[in-house]
Design a protein that fits this description.
alpha+beta, OB fold (Dihydrolipoamide Acetyltransferase, E2P), BirA Bifunctional Protein, domain 2, eight-stranded mixed sheet, five-stranded mixed beta barrel, 16 helices, 18 strands, 24% strand
Length: 501
């Protein structure tokens, strides 16, 4: 017998039960059910509650999925689970009469509604004594309870609906994700920011160095691109008079997948007029410590065996200071590519012969410096060549007012004082267009309308992007971005066995 045969037999048996219910005039997929109480709330009632208090509580009606069942002749114990938790059920043949057999024939995974009185078992567990029940949704596939939860990682991602049913830890991750996003909104709203929505399909994909997804609008007869960032639209709104603006947005980048990257991901971007990147460092410290206190009750946490302390202030590490430290030699914006290749070779790192300085800076920093950044660290003062939308530093125009926040070796945020000079922005777009012409698919596009917006005048502004997915990874101690995205993108299932078909 093949491995799939038992699963097929279980499905066939459940379909037979389905037809038997219909044959008795019972709708296996039910209709509206008047829920008076949720399982988790009932189960969490204070331990001291005695029998008299529970009886005075009166009948309760609950609905959810059966996740366990133990039959003992004329009595049956089961557990009912809804989105708040689970509650024990107790059914007796003398109480339910003929309906008792129907109750015991319910399968693990079926949705039912029950009404009954609350009581406490000998072991002290709060329980609903079932007086009546109804079928609300027949489960035709068995849950993987025999495996004590769904363990295969790829199957968990592909069948997230099953993962959420059988793995309480997965459900908690996404509850935490919701709390993080709510906390961010409350934090920014309290500081006078306004939440907005900007286009997800754009004629020119701007605001980041990334390869876009392309589509075509038939009615308009034009190509459009899924946004890689909302930045240029949000800055248009600053031009229009919104001095503090933010968007929790979906971005799309046509790149590979990994434990840190998904082609579709969530970002927070916000812009504050009359501020610079130093102001946003303080704001970021305040935001993350407030989230940590709300979620964990402390500013210390463990992430993948790293003991992290989010207590501000966080260190500021200059970009070239970090490179110089790891290469054990002074590196500046003027260090030529040949010297960088030589220094890299000493660390057994190969910088391509044709690489320009900015490409060598980026490669060496990502390889040598980023792995050392465990505790929260602001990397500041990036070179101009890596930051085409940032304002130059007044004291050193080779650098820009920019920071990236790293925690546990991962970039969490990117921010800078915005370039609001339309003449200089045009020049930088021209330079980026030249890179595109030479084959750099991730170079910034030339956006003439954005230049026009700047020509109307934009106040001094600082802007920041924070990766929501990586933030959730941090606060839930997850090693992969796929664990914090409900439906991550995966390769097709070609040739994979189906264990229950």
């Amino acid at each position: 017998m093949s491995d799939e045969a038992p699963g097929r037999d279980l499905i066939r048996h459940r379909r037979e039960k389905l037809e038997a219910l219909r044959g008795r005039g019972i709708d296996p997929f039910g209709t509206r059910y008047p829920v008076t109480h949720w399982a988790g709330q009932l189960a969490a009632r204070p331990q001291p509650a005695g029998e008299d208090e529970l009886k005075a509580f009166g009948p309760v009606s609950a609905a959810g999925r059966i996740v366990s069942m133990r039959r003992h002749g004329k009595t049956t114990f089961a557990h009912l689970m809804d989105y708040t938790g689970r509650i024990q059920l107790y059914a007796r043949a003398d109480q339910l009469g003929e309906a008792y057999e129907q109750f015991t024939e319910a399968d693990i995974g079926d949705f039912i509604g029950v009404t009954g009185d609350m009581f406490r078992t000998r072991t002290g567990e709060l329980t609903i004594g079932v007086k009546s029940f109804t079928f609300l949704g027949k489960s035709l596939r068995p849950l993987p309870e025999k495996w004590h939860g769904l363990k295969d990682v790829e199957t968990r991602y592909r069948r997230r609906y099953v993962d959420l049913i059988v793995n309480p830890g997965t459900r908690e991750i996404f509850v935490t994700r919701s709390r993080i996003i709510k906390g961010i909104r409350e934090f920014l709203d309290a500081r006078g920011f306004i939440e907005v929505e900007t286009p997800m399909m754009q004629p020119i994909p701007g605001g980041a160095a990334a390869r876009p997804f392309q589509t075509h609008h038939n009615a308009l007869g034009m190509d459009l691109y899924l946004r890689i960032a909302p930045e240029l639209y949000l800055k248009r709104l600053v031009v229009g008079g919104y001095d503090r603006v933010y968007e929790i947005n979906r971005n799309f980048r046509n790149e590979g997948t990994s434990t840190q990257h998904n082609p579709e991901f969530t970002m927070l971007e916000f812009y504050q007029a009359y501020a610079d990147y130093a102001d946003l460092m303080e704001l970021t410290e305040e935001l993350l410590t407030q989230l940590a206190q709300s979620l964990l009750g402390a500013t210390r946490l463990t992430y993948q065996q790293h003991q992290l302390d989010l207590t501000p202030p966080w260190p500021r590490l200059p970009f070239f200071g970090g490179l110089s430290r790891e290469l054990d030699a002074e590196v500046t914006p003027d260090t030529n590519a040949a010297t960088l290749r030589s220094l890299g070779a000493r660390r057994r790192l190969e910088v391509p012969a044709g690489a320009e300085r900015w490409q060598a800076w980026k490669e060496l920093f990502e390889t040598l410096v980023e792995p050392t950044l465990i505790q929260p660290t602001f990397v500041i003062d990036f070179p101009l060549g890596l930051s085409p939308l940032s304002k130059k530093k007044r004291e050193d125009p080779r650098l820009v007012d920019r920071f990236e926040l790293f925690v546990a070796q991962r970039e969490i945020a990117n921010a800078y004082t915005e370039l609001n000079d339309p003449i200089e922005q045009r020049e930088r777009f021209v330079q980026q267009a030249a890179l595109r012409a030479r084959g750099d698919e991730e170079a910034h596009w030339f956006d003439e309308d954005f230049i026009r917006a700047l020509e109307y005048g934009m106040p001094p502004t600082a802007g920041e992007g924070i990766g929501i997915d990586r933030l959730v990874m941090l606060f839930t101690d997850q090693p992969s971005i796929r664990e914090v995205i409900l439906f991550p993108h995966l390769r097709p299932e070609s040739g994979r066995a189906h264990d229950d078909e």
